Amino acid sequence: MEQPTIAERLINSHIKPSYSRIKIMEYIVNERSHPTVEEIYNELLIELPTLSKTTVYNTLYVLMKAKLIRLITIEENETRYDADLSEHGHFKCERCGSIYDFCISLENNSIEGLNGFLIDDKNVYFKGVCQSCLANKNNN
Amino acid sequence: MEQPTIAERLINSHIKPSYSRIKIMEYIVNERSHPTVEEIYNELLIELPTLSKTTVYNTLYVLMKAKLIRLITIEENETRYDADLSEHGHFKCERCGSIYDFCISLENNSIEGLNGFLIDDKNVYFKGVCQSCLANKNNN
DNA sequence: GTTCCTGCAAAAGCTTTGCAGAAGA
DNA sequence: TCTTCTGCAAAGCTTTTGCAGGAAC
């Protein structure tokens, strides 16, 4: 089964596949680091020297509205983006700042208090210390 | 079993129970609406006309560090606070903006991908449309 | 020619910081 | 007296908005 290209995915969502948009979407899909606006902007500036943050914001808004990406708000002061729309959780290491994905499935019937509610979006965010940082601590 | 008062809870956490701090903590505990800074400030201004937002921010920071309250970041642009530290999820209705609590328990052993990780904090945020808004829609 | 994408600059909004006066021990 | 709590004002950041030039079709 062929994976659609980034451009095809944009077209399928009725978004014109401009070079900037392809690059921004591509970056979020390939880098699985759940980048911030700042990271996307700084990284793509190398390849697109005229890129502006406005375009990054505009594009992220367009991609979000088309539900090609989604927002991650683990921390109040940093908005991140994720192109993986499957149900999974995010773990942020408070020591090194890395974000890890993990598998989790929340069955609606195991939830009390939301009977008759329409659930569009589920987010699971954990924080703590990752295995790698825990291991390093012992070596220090 | 006696519940400790707000002042006692502050003292137990080595926080001086000033009037502002008691009122702010009290507001978060009593109002179970998970208020924003803005809401806390505006509401308490009635009773404490000289209150400043700086004091609200300062106090929230102190309470957070003492783990008497916790941050809720369902949306990127609104930071909310919750004094209920028990494990529960938050549902935000995208139509009326209300936030509902719901029961959920995440067993660590049902999570794949975080073996050997230290988990400090778990957050579950859902979005959608609440029962009440769904019912109203039919009446409109 | 028309649409809409891009990017500069300015504005807006929230949060933090610096500092001085006030309150409390 | 000494500490620290409070609050004004300013600064800092991120995000949004207005608008004009430019690319694409």
Q: Helix and strand layout, with pairings?
A:
The structure is a homodimer of 140-residue chains.
Chain A: H1 6-12, H2 19-30, H3 37-45, H4 53-65, E1 70-75, E2 78-82, E3 88-93, E4 99-103, E5 118-129, H5 131-139
The structure holds a DNA duplex (25 and 25 nucleotides).
Briefly, what is this?
The structure is a homodimer of 140-residue chains. Chain A is an alpha+beta fold and 140 residues long. Helices cover 36% and strands 24% of the residues of chain A.
Give short descriptive properties of this protein.
homodimer; 140 residues; alpha+beta; three-stranded mixed beta sheet; two-stranded antiparallel ribbon; 5 strands; 24% strand; DNA-binding
Structural write-up:
The structure is a homodimer. By secondary structure, chain A is α+β, with helices and mostly antiparallel strands. The first copy, chain A, is about 35% helix and about 25% strand. Chain A has helices at about 5-10, 20-30, 35-45, 55-65, 130-140; strands at about 70-75, 80, 90-95, 100-105, 120-130. In chain A, the strands form 2 sheets. A 3-stranded mixed β-sheet of chain A has the order 4-3-5. The first copy, chain A, has a two-stranded antiparallel sheet with strand order 1-2. In chain A, strand 1 and strand 2 form a beta hairpin. In chain A, helix 2 (about 20-30) packs across helix 4. The termini of chain A are far apart. At the A-B interface, strand 1, strand 4 and strand 5 of A face strand 1, strand 4 and strand 5 of B. The structure holds a DNA duplex (25 and 25 nucleotides).
